[in-house]
Amino acid sequence: MNEFLHMGGYASYVWSSYAIALVVLLANLVAPLRARRKLLTRLAQREKRAQRMKR
Amino acid sequence: MLRFFHQLASPKHFYRISGKWIPWLGAACLAFMLAGLYQGLLVAPTDYQQGDSYRIMFVHVPAAWMSLFIYMVMAIAGGIGLVWRIKLAEIMAISSAHVGASFTFLALITGSIWGKPMWGSWWVWDARLTSELILLFLYLGVIALYNAVEDRRTAARATSILALVGVVNIPIIHYSVEWWNTLHQGPTVTKFDAPSIDFRMLIPLLLMAIAFKLFYAVVVLLRARVEVLQRERNTSWVKALVAEHE
Amino acid sequence: MNPARRKRLILIGLMVAGVAVAVGFALNAFNQNLMFFYSPSEVAQGKAPPDHAFRLGGLVTNGSVKRLPNGLTTRFEVTDNTRTVTIEYTGILPDLFREGQGIVAHGKLNADGVFIADEVLAKHDENYMPPEVADALKKSHKVNSAAGGREGALGREVNSAAGGREGTLGREEGVSASQKGTAP
Prior knowledge:
The structure holds three protein chains of three kinds. Chain B is an all-alpha fold. Helices cover 78% and strands 0% of the residues of chain B. Chain B is built from nine helices and no strands. The mean pLDDT of chain B is 91. Chain C is an alpha+beta fold. Chains in contact: A-B, B-C.
């Protein structure tokens, strides 16, 4: 296990690469999910206002 | 078959069908990625020259491949949008830009981290690295241009033209290591004779490449769905969906 | 296809073709500037700039690496199998630096024709394999070329100039070329 983490002396290079990759991939997943939620909330609010205007 | 595509091109059907596909694509992506990581970090042997540092390849190479692939998808979708005025093609084009930029960034940064111990330098201005950096700027240009123009459809047309102009950079990136002498080495997997990579190292590389492709599919669909909702916000089906969300 | 669409398609095609041609001309014009380094042959032909620094690339000749008495400076030769240039470098060499390896050095030629480098980068090739496989290949290769008594390491036959094989640095066809390698 220790040997695995050590990566033949290149641990900092290898693991930082994989960590950056993980962060970039997660950011790509989270961004559209958040944008979708925000958009739906905004559209719902707009709809409510429109309903009120009608009354 | 043709009918299927016609339906798919309608935003409403696209939204419904893509919603069904995303979980499957996501599960497949996760499976391939875990298999690739296991094979790449635990099974693949140490390289005879580079020791364990070469394992950065399993992120770097698929990311670099995807940076080119996504650019081609973006330009072709943009071109289809320009010629046939298909809304969904425009949406696909712009939804690809962010993922493409991410993968380009990832290829550059992991390449830099790999270059430091192996070459002895974080960065050199050779033809391969410079053309890949230009690709990142092309992606960022597409994103910036799209956000700068108010009207979505005009914005989509402008960005499609920019994306198409930038296509010349793609063969330059690919062949840079053959046309000019560079510090970056030549192609390993795509050269015409047998790939000069050990089988146990090739397996995780291909697994990761498939995982990255699936990941792109998931993200591009997620983004396209948001874009569809945004553009179709005044239609009855989106309004029904919003009411459901409440 | 209706005429409006065809017109748009042709316009886009022309645009992409036009840009490609323009970029092609530009790249052709700047071809030399896009080369990352000069080879020893080019230096011998006087193509490298004589008065300012440039990059020199080649394979480190087997048995040429020596530490100078001050303990910090390394002297070695690089070759492109045709010409050889001696390099002196003071500093830490990259992990991949070894005899038979491709390197790119940045520096200037001095009056004696020795290249004084201020930076040495290692170039690695496109071959990836575990050490056992590399050893096995090396052995089978040695057996193949035993008649010629030539020692070659995986497509990096530095001493094969006698065999007259033409190699551009780092672009040798790797393992396959080495197996086909011309025995002197």
